[in-house]
Specification:
The chain has about 325 residues and is mostly helical. The chain has 11 helices and no strands. It has one domain: MetI-like fold (Orthogonal Bundle). Helix 4 runs parallel beside helix 7 (about 175-200) and helix 6 packs across helix 7.
């Protein structure tokens, strides 16, 4: 005859400890998960360190640069880097054709790249997020008009559209931010619209509509929080592409104008000296490459962290 054995009931202290443990775990789980994902991803860790370094250099450029951005030394023009014959420790990365310190100009160029990259993404993100939210939620003629505008913008190469704007207006930092921002919003609009079309069909959104909740309230409380993670990932990766775009336009002479310094402008100055003075273009190119790679690594890590499928990891 089988006899069922009942397990011993938990003691009073164990019963009280279990809810406390679960509460503590739930409270700390997001931070624990983010930390685990960061430590697990070598590229994410490297990307975060690079981005933090670039931000620190850009913010404290005046304190970190050993020389002024346009400080010239005609007695020491085209000096090689410090480790080459003829180089000095005073100019670690050498000087350009006007005797300006390469390291100092790269440091000041970091500030310009961050300004253009971040604020262009802010402009594009605000326009694209608003267009995507309203287009996906309201549908109908709003969606039709918005998507036809998106198709029109996408039919024209991005850099050509920006060059037209810069040709009409005076090239400069603010003009460059405006031009990149008003041409890149379509990326956000299309992706956010797709997310909204999925979210608005969920039960809690339908329930909010059924009880008479205003549309703007539904968008703010139920739609926006569910698409914001996608917006963060897009924005992070867009900073990298914007930095490359700014460097390309400055290389063509249509971006940042002297006396401001840009990595792309430094590349343009150094292209005629590649055969004899390689450091003029090499170090600004490395600055662009390392910065963009760091942002891309960080964007990939953020995508893993904010992906709902990674919640159970």
């Amino acid at each position: 005859m089988n006899q069922q054995i009942n397990p011993e009931p938990p003691s009073e202290s164990q019963a009280q400890a279990a809810p406390d443990t679960m509460k503590k775990y739930k409270k700390s789980s997001p931070l624990v998960r983010w930390t685990k994902l960061l430590l697990r991803s070598k590229t994410g860790t490297v990307g975060l360190l690079i981005v933090l370094t670039v931000f620190i250099v850009g913010i404290f450029a005046d304190q970190l640069a050993p020389f002024g951005v346009n400080e010239q030394n005609y007695a020491n023009m085209l000096a090689p880097p410090a480790w080459q014959e003829g180089g000095t420790s005073e100019h670690i990365l050498g000087t350009d054709n006007l005797g300006r310190d390469i390291l100092s100009r790269i440091i000041y160029g970091t500030t310009i790249s961050l300004l253009v990259g971040i604020f262009s993404v802010v402009v594009a993100g605000i326009l694209g997020m608003g267009a995507g939210l309203f287009s996906g939620y309201y549908g109908g003629w709003v969606d039709t008009v918005t998507m036809r505008m998106v198709d029109a913008f996408l039919s024209i190469p991005n850099i050509l559209f920006i060059l037209v704007i810069l040709a009409v207006l005076n090239p400069g930092i603010m003009t460059l931010i405006f031009a990149i921002g008003v041409t890149n919003w379509v990326i956000y609009a299309r992706l956010i619209r797709g997310e909204v079309l999925s979210v608005k069909e969920r039960e809690y959104v339908k329930a909010a509509k059924s009880i008479g909740t205003k549309n703007l309230t539904i968008i703010r409380r139920h739609i926006l929080p569910n698409v914001f993670s996608t917006f963060i990932v897009i924005s992070t990766l867009s900073v990298a592409t914007t930095i490359i775009l700014e460097a390309s336009l400055s290389f063509l002479g249509m971006g940042v104008q002297p006396p401001d310094v840009s990595w792309g402008y430094m590349l343009s100055d150094g292209r005629d000296y590649l055969a004899t003075n390689w450091w003029l273009a090499t170090f600004p190119g490395l600055a662009i490459t390392i910065t963009v790679l760091g942002i891309i690594f960080l964007g990939d890590w953020l995508r893993d962290v904010l992906d709902p499928r990674s919640q159970g990891r």
